[in-house]
């Protein structure tokens, strides 16, 4: 099997390669993606999904999807359904291996009884505040609970009473009996069960005690036959406790926990608690707001699963925390869409042009290339007529030197069409420009033998053969690279007030009339856009997925 090991490598794969060489786990590889159903998945989870499912795929192994649903107060079926949708959308499948930690509650309870019988767990009647004080500090040892030496018989009786609902929430916990002087505070008699009267989204009211994550996690991995339990770096200090449970319970074929650095993305927050705060305080429209780093938000913004998988491959896997530039994520979607989507004309801030020497009743059909990166994409027809729209930004009444777009007396080429010259500027009573009157040179049609050149080329839209649409220009949600850098400040102080601009009078090619939710395009000279998945038939709404280039790089250099 050694000769068939994947070529791609990182420190996790090196561990797995060595295990296979030594025939550990009989050469078997099984991973899992174990989200808690208490929020929507974000781009950091996508990195973990790609890692766990990718390793299973490359080693011809298996990857389970398991919900670690041990806290019914924070969990909801809404989150379960969104997570299933997100993992599938990313292109991964778990066949019939969809599991829940709650599937194993009975087994976990039985194993907890074993720990009590071994003298390795006890029922503590201390309050949560008392338990916190007993733990000590990182530099000072903890102290024993006054209930630590209860007899095995008393502990069994109390634990059974906890399970049967005999006691109120908070009156008792079950704690592992390890070492209150350990330098690792997670080994200072951690709580492994607590009383919590809450309706669980799957088990309903069957249980009133629930296992803590640190206990449920290794037990669930072992039950499922996981060989390599891949976690983010913050769980490294939990690993001795993970191993302690497996060893004390004498469980064979123990899984191995391996930690890697989580994804930290610039101009973004990844904490589910802080993302929930943004949603609940209505700084964003919901978990799927296209400015959110959630997978559902990225999907609605127009990101593709391929671009996210490629991004995960680019950033790789390391043992050390670092900050990844969000520009790399934006590059990944540009790189993907550039190869596959159709180019179209869209004028976002229309300025009317009347071509005074063009016949009133004439409409021409012009050829336009759909995608120069993909010759098989073919061509489409553009309609040219007397009245057109250009971008307001493509005209200046008093231009600076080396300005190559339109100005009074100046000429510019309309892409796929003709060279035009601005002869007159029309303004309203307030001095606002409302129209340009231009002439065209009929000998300069694109694709003909015309040799006349001008320096500027701009896009345009026929007034008669176009549609009106709403365009939402999404940008980065925060104005600073690390919104959490200063713990004294509220991260919401750094929200970008320009993260969403809504344009209501945009003009687009008529051929986009039948576009469906999720359809993606490159608006020439503007960026990549998709039809909002929540669009209705009455009005098309386009979300900007990404600009054509990283405008923030220029901005940062100027600051």
Topology:
Blueprint: H1 11-21, E1 30-33, H2 43-58, E2 62-67, H3 77-89, E3 98-100, H4 105-117, E4 121-124, H5 128-134, H6 152-163, E5 173-176, E6 191-195, E7 209-211, H7 213-224, E8 228-232, H8 239-248, E9 256-260, E10 264-265, H9 272-280, H10 295-301, H11 305-315, E11 323-324, H12 326-340, E12 342-344, E13 346-347, E14 350-355, E15 364-369, E16 379-384, E17 387-391, E18 411-414, E19 419-427, E20 433-441, E21 457-458, E22 461-462, E23 466-474, E24 500-509, E25 520-523, E26 527-531, E27 541-546, H13 551-558
Parallel strand pairs: 1-2, 2-3, 8-9, 10-11, 12-25, 14-20, 18-21, 23-27
Antiparallel strand pairs: 4-5, 5-6, 6-7, 13-24, 14-17, 15-16, 17-22, 18-19, 19-20, 23-24, 25-26, 26-27
Helix pairs in contact: 2-11, 7-8, 11-12
Gross CATH architecture of the largest domain? 3-Layer(aba) Sandwich
**Low-confidence runs of at least 5 consecutive residues:** 555-559
Helical fraction equals 25-40%
Cα Rg: 31 Å
Assess the beta-strand content as a share of residues. Answer: 15-25%
Order of neighbouring strands in the sheet with most strands: 12-25-26-27-23-24-13
**Termini separation (Å)?**
55 Å
The CATH superfamily of the largest domain appears as: HUPs
**If you consult CATH, what is the topology of the largest domain?**
Rossmann fold
């Amino acid at each position: 099997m050694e000769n068939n090991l994947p070529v791609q490598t990182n420190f996790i794969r090196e561990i797995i390669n060595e295990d296979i060489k030594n025939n550990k786990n009989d050469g078997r590889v099984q991973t899992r993606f174990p989200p808690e159903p208490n929020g929507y998945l974000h781009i950091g989870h996508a990195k973990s999904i790609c890692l766990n499912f990718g390793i299973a795929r490359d080693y011809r192994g298996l990857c389970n999807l398991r919900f670690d649903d041990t806290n019914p107060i924070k969990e909801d079926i809404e989150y379960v359904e969104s997570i299933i949708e997100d993992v599938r959308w990313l292109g991964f499948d778990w066949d019939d291996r969809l599991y829940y930690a709650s599937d194993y509650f009975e087994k976990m309870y039985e194993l907890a009884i074993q720990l009590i019988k071994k003298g390795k767990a006890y029922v503590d009647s201390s309050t949560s505040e008392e338990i916190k004080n007993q733990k000590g500090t990182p530099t000072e040892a903890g102290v024993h609970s006054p209930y630590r030496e209860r007899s095995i018989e008393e502990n069994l009786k109390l634990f059974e009473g906890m399970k049967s609902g005999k006691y109120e929430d908070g009156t008792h916990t079950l704690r592992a009996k390890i070492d209150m002087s350990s330098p690792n505070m997670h080994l200072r008699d951690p709580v492994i069960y607590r009383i919590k009267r809450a309706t669980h989204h799957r088990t309903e009211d069957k249980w009133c005690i629930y296992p803590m994550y640190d206990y449920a996690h290794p037990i669930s991995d072992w039950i499922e036959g996981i060989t390599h339990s891949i976690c983010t770096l913050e769980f490294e200090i939990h690993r001795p406790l993970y191993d302690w449970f497996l060893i004390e319970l004498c469980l064979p074929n123990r899984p191995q926990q391996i930690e890697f650095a989580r994804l930290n993305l610039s101009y973004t927050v990844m904490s589910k608690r802080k993302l929930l705060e943004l949603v609940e305080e209505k700084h964003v429209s919901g978990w799927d707001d296209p400015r959110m780093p959630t997978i559902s938000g990225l999907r609605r913004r127009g990101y593709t699963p391929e671009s996210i998988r490629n991004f995960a491959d680019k950033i790789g896997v390391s043992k050390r925390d670092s900050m990844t530039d969000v520009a790399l994520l934006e590059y990944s979607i540009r790189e993907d869409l550039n190869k596959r989507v159709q180019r179209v004309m869209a004028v976002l801030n229309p300025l009317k042009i009347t071509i005074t020497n063009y016949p009133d009743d004439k409409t021409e059909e012009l050829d336009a290339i759909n995608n120069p990166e993909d010759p098989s994409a073919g061509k489409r027809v553009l309609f040219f007529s007397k009245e057109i729209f250009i971008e307001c930004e493509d005209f200046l009444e008093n231009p600076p030197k080396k300005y190559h777009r339109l100005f009074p007396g100046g000429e510019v080429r309309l892409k796929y069409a003709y060279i035009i010259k601005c002869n007159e500027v029309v303004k309203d009573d307030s001095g606002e420009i409302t129209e340009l009157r231009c002439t065209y040179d009929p000998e300069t049609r694109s694709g003909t033998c015309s040799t006349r050149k001008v320096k500027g080329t701009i896009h345009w839209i026929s007034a008669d053969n176009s549609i009106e649409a709403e365009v939402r220009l999404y940008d980065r949600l925060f104005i600073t690279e690390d919104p959490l850098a200063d713990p004294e400040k509220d991260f919401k102080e750094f929200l970008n007030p320009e993260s969403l601009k809504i344009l209501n009078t945009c003009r687009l090619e008529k051929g986009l009339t039948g576009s469906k939710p999720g359809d993606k395009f490159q608006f020439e000279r503007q960026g990549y856009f998709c039809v909002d998945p929540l669009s209705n038939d009455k009005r098309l709404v386009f979300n900007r997925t990404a600009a054509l280039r990283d405008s923030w790089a220029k901005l940062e250099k100027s600051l």
